[in-house]
Specification:
The longest helix has about 50 residues. α6 runs parallel beside α23. A five-stranded mixed beta sheet has the order 4-3-7-9-8, sandwiched between helices. A two-stranded antiparallel sheet has the order 1-2. It has 25 helices and nine strands. It has about 600 residues and is mostly helical.
Length: about 600
């Protein structure tokens, strides 16, 4: 026995890490064996044998790990086993119960485990590199995998009736009308006929129209969004190579981009034109680095075409070029061009549309009816007030914005801020656009308002990591991978896997709903319906959401058909709304436990 311990140089440190590894492994086994173990406080207290079995498994794991320490004392067996067992444990916990706080808790412990294993010499891959071909194959597999998952969740949202009118129903009707008339008209966006470009000026949507002509289905938009977002991995790799990254380091950046939780979470409310912003900005950054000014101009214009408020991102990057890169002419032209484009889009929206949505987004920064100029005045003349709004939401709380910043920066191990070059902090300035607002959705990763911010953060991370020493970069890359993995599983997979379960458990129900809507509601009829039915009925000239299709609190009975979901949380609301249609003489043409369809007495 003395010879055994002498050979492995046994110490309290070895004992502790072996014990922790055994504990994480045993906890993972318990999570697999007992599906309620994580959420059930009575686990191991109601059955003594469970505690005994846990002790036996832990003792066996401890003995096996100790044996490997004896046989392979220089292979860091327990160190690699420690982080592997912890990641398995974290994966199982988040699969069972995803969410923000549990993900952040697991991420903190994961970082500590990663730091310890790095300190022990793990993940030291500096002695070898991989070929360009191998790197590209690996990056392709990573990008394909994440694209498939993202597209699958989008398709499942539509197929399981989880996509509401705002905003997927709007885009479904808009693209249908664009394919018919080239005009982006909708009726379900503001409850009357108008162009979507009267709300948001987004000519970029025409780039998808040829694909929609070939595949005129709502799911085309969901799949296209996944492909557009994940296509950003290409400029990420090109920027990394331009900054001198090795093939393996470029592969790490590709993983961090694809696994960035904010990208996938931004699709939680289906397709938006904002998805174009992320890859287009990255191409702008790349062509700026390469000094390919013709392509830089083209992609800058394409970026501005995404939405009327995108000009601010171009201005921020123009300022960065002036201050950091000393590219005075390029930066000035970008700022001037962005301001000119904003002036044009502002004029179109105010004269022919509904104006800029400044009051709803930044009402906390505007005094009276000052509009956009009022927000700028507040920012310039009263910076103290502006600073007070950064961590305060509409309820006066700061937790949401603090966790929002953590979810943006942790997956990159704070690399966007890891620099001594003060000018680089300009690239973090876009975060202020969301932090200054008290509109609740602006600092919610479940919406699309952070795609531009993600582009800047990824770009800053690439630049800053390139300046670090190899040892520091290795530490931060491993920490970033751990944080990204945990947050992705907890925030993306842990909150979206219910879609898979719903599709498996209720596929017959959804198929029947599809058949009923198709059979009982003609394609040329005008319809008012429950929000989750709008995307499925949106390929028509007139469709409205019943919640908004009202006048003086009563339903507008001016449509050919009314369709309602009468189960679950919509039962009471649908019953009240349907009563107005019954009073107007609408007759019931279909009813089951889920759907109610009414036909107008005037429909021929």
């Amino acid at each position: 026995m003395d010879r055994f311990f002498k050979r492995i140089k046994y110490s309290p440190e070895i004992f502790f890490r072996t014990l922790m590894c055994s504990w994480f492994f045993t906890s993972a086994v318990n999570l697999i064996a007992y599906s309620t173990s994580f959420t059930n406080l009575a686990f191991a207290q109601d059955k003594t044998w469970k505690l005994i079995v846990t002790g036996v498994i832990m003792a066996l794991a401890f003995a096996v790990l100790t044996f490997f320490e004896y046989r392979l004392p220089d292979r860091r067996t327990t160190e690699y086993a420690l982080i592997s067992s912890y990641m398995l444990f974290a994966l199982l916990v988040m699969t069972e119960k995803g969410g923000v706080m549990i993900s952040l808790s697991l991420m903190i412990v994961g970082v500590l485990v990663a730091l310890y294993t790095l300190h022990r010499g793990c993940f030291d891959f500096g002695s070898f590199d991989i070929s360009k071909k191998t790197s590209l194959i690996g990056i392709g597999i990573i990008a394909f995998g994440f694209t498939f998952v993202l597209a699958a969740f989008g398709v499942l949202r539509y197929e399981t009736y989880a996509s509401p009118n705002f905003d997927f129903g709007i885009f479904c009707q808009m693209f249908h009308n664009m394919s018919e008339t080239l005009i982006p008209n909708t009726t379900c966006e503001r409850d009357y006929l108008l162009s979507h470009f009267a709300v948001h000026f987004s000519p970029i949507c025409y780039l998808l129209l040829p694909i929609y002509w070939i595949f005129p289905y709502p799911n085309t938009l969901q799949i296209a969004q996944a492909l557009i977002l994940m296509s950003g991995v290409v400029p990420v790799i090109l920027i990394a190579k331009e900054k001198g990254y090795s093939n393996k380091a470029s592969g790490v950046m590709a993983f961090l981009y694809c696994c960035f939780p904010a990208i996938s979470l931004g699709c939680n409310y289906d397709f938006h034109e904002n998805c174009f912003l992320l890859p287009l900005l990255l191409w702008v950054f790349y062509f700026s680095e390469k000094e390919r000014y013709v392509y830089l101009a083209i992609f800058t214009v394409l970026t501005l075409l995404v939405k009327e408020d995108v000009f601010i991102y171009v201005i921020i990057y123009g300022i960065f070029l002036i201050v950091s890169k000393k590219k005075y002419r390029t930066g000035t032209l970008m700022c001037a061009g962005a301001l000119l484009y904003f002036a044009i889009s502002y004029t179109i929206l105010t004269r022919s549309g509904l104006g800029i949505m400044t009051d709803s987004r930044f009402g906390n920064m505007i005094y009276g009816n000052g509009g956009l100029i009022g927000a700028v005045k507040t920012l310039v003349t009263n910076p103290g007030y502006a600073l007070s709004q950064i961590f305060i939401d509409k309820d006066g709380e700061s937790v949401n914005k603090l966790t929002y910043m953590v979810k943006l920066l942790a997956p990159l191990a704070l690399l966007p801020l890891a620099t001594k070059k003060m000018s680089r902090y300009i690239l973090a300035a876009p975060m202020l656009l969301n932090l200054l607002s008290t509109w609740p959705y602006q600092c919610d990763l479940g919406f699309q308002y952070h795609f531009g911010i993600v582009a800047f953060l990824i770009y800053a991370a690439i630049l800053n990591a390139a300046d670090l020493r190899s040892g520091a970069r290795r530490y931060l890359f491993v920490i970033a991978c751990v944080c990204s993995f945990i947050l992705y599983i907890g925030l993306v997979m842990g909150t979206q896997t219910y879609l898979v379960k719903n599709q498996m458990d209720f596929k017959d129900v959804y198929d029947k709903m599809d058949d009923v809507l198709c059979e009982y509601i003609p394609d040329d009829a005008s319809v008012a319906c429950t929000t989750y039915l709008v995307p499925h009925l949106a390929s028509r000239d007139e469709i409205y959401e019943t919640y908004y299709h009202k006048k003086n609190g009563k339903a507008k009975t001016d449509v050919d058909y009314a369709a309602f979901i009468i189960s679950g949380s919509y039962e009471s609301q649908s019953t009240r709304e349907a009563a107005d249609y019954f009073s107007a003489g609408y007759k019931e043409v279909y009813r089951d436990d889920i759907l109610l369809i009414l036909e107008s007495p005037n429909y021929n």
